[in-house]
Predict the 3D structure of the following.
Amino acid sequence: MEPFNVRPDQLAEEMLDYSRKLGKGVENLLNSEKIDAGVTPKVEVYREDKLRLYRYEAPADIVQSSIPTLIVYALVNRPYMTDLQENRSTVSNLLATGQDIYLVDWGYPDEADRSLTMDDYINGYLDRCVDVICKRHKLDKINILGICQGGAFSLCYSSLHPDKVKNLITMVTPVDFQTPDNMLSAWVQQLDVDLLVDTLGNVPGELLNWTFLSLKPFSLTGQKYLSMVDVLEDEGKLKNFLRMEKWIFDSPDQAGETFRQFVKDFYQKNGFIEGGVNVGNRPIDLKNVTCPVLNIFAEQDHLVPPDSSRALQNLTGSKDYTELSFPGGHIGIYVSGKAQKLVPPAIGQWLDERSR
Amino acid sequence: MSESAFWNEDWMKTQQKYWKNWTDMSRKAMGLQQPLKSPLESAMEHWWQGLSPGADDMTRDFMNKMMTQTQSYFRMAEGYYSNANESENWLDAANRTVTDLQKLFSGDGDNVFGGSEATGDDALHKIMAFWEMPMDNWQRMVSSLSLMPGDLLRNMPHKDGLDRFLSAPGLGYLREEEGHYKQLTQRVVEYQQCLSEYMSFFSNLGLMSANRMKERIDGLAKDGKQVESARALYDLWVSSSEDVYGEQVMTPEYARIHGRLVNGLMALKQKHGHVIDEVLGGLNMPTRRELRTLQDRLQESRRESKAMQSEIDLLKAQMIELRTLVTSRPKTSTAKLKDAATPKKKVTIKKKATAKKA
């Protein structure tokens, strides 16, 4: 059989069809309303500098768990990825399982925040958020759900403050930063991080975005837009796409001193595996993490390869370690329909079994 | 926008007429006619230029990306179409398309596309721009970090003699200032070399992708599968390119080139910042260096202040706890507690005194 079955007349029809879809789609695009993201009602319960701590409002008919869960998102991008839209909200689906959900929003650091260190974030901001929640609920410890870089921060926090963490969930969290398939890691090995941070101060979101898009430049900056023509005609799907697009390019700068330590200690020195990471003059030892741990990773993750997350298995001091493998990618784990059906219910069940 | 006559009628009519003609011709000639040069790209550009002022920033940005990809897609289809007109069967047309891609990426741009358009303006020449995407992304990022356009340094000429000039010592009263500017120029040259190295790394990958695409097509034939649309052809090209890219950027060579590029840009920006600081200092204005010192000191003070505040909060809580404990006990036992606490206090004082002496 010949591998090509494209006649010129078919080709012309295809091009015409494409143009028709594009024309109709642009009309929808121009008429589309302002894109909103972050749909579940929430109240601010604490603020400090640019940080905001939110508590999400649970549906009235849900009996909530007595132990709240704090979501710790990465400093990269914005946390509304977990609550993108009504039918694609990890937060909303966690609330539906009866969890009481809080979320740290780190805000948009500016040049004045350049000197914030990992110590400031972990032993400062994060610890104070945990204290606020503990005080509100009259508890000694709460659940923590860390995502990506926020997962690495949560591991550090749980190592330094094991008495304040009841259960720890890590999602798409890098632990072994030097697995052979880690493209990001391969690239930053030759980077002069001191020069970069000394020069730029904060690390601009544009630079981080360029790095992430460079992992798959043809798919992420090209093909994706061509594929969009098929959904442009559908206003609902178009809005979903635009929300994702807004999220991808809504990239806060990263505080320079935190970036310096994170890249050097983790990407270049592989600190969780090799040791030698100190936060606030105290060493990070994952053996101190003795609470139950649920480690969730994505099988097609191009940013945090599954093996990078799986490495956690033998590193903690926990006797109750569970893994959940999700058949999808780094972003799909929050927004895909499959993820909504699988991930939040699994987290809810796991927490319920350990929060009694 | 939907009420615009230009939008609703002119553009769509023009397009439909064009495609109708092309379809008719294709059906009649089945590749025996000379290919028409597609006006679609320029028509689309004009169409979008007419519409884009009415779009908000996000829509405009999104559509610009879409239009760029649409052009690549149309070029791929156009190239294939042209070869189909020159060929006796579709396999031959596909092979010609891939061969043209291979020729273009290996620098032999003549006689591609059936020899009909070797002017550098044909579809397959333009597909080469596809492999500029990683570079283009870099340029955009550089532009966002700088007042200069990202491609300013890309084609800046420099000669070997410049190195000698730049390494010569400065003379006279302004020798320090001259030295700064020479170092700045030196870093421009070094960054340009890194950029050139980065571009040259990508120049080979286009050819490798064309070869990979050929392998994929051969694989399809063996598996009894078919490419049934221009879109599938485009997707095959994207996945071949992405595969080759993914393999090559994981090599130590790329890590070195990538590191040099970013480090080179940072070294240049750092020197640039120093020169600006010198100028600002001369004008008695605050410099970045001074601001950063202040930021560091301020953050240190805030850190201390927050630590003290949390200690105060802890002490307050302990005080309240103690007060509650004391007030909740019978008076007699309180007195006993006081008596019991007295010697301990003395010991503490002694310890402190000893420590001070030491």
About this structure: The longest helix of chain B spans residues 175-223. Residues 288-357 of chain B form one domain.
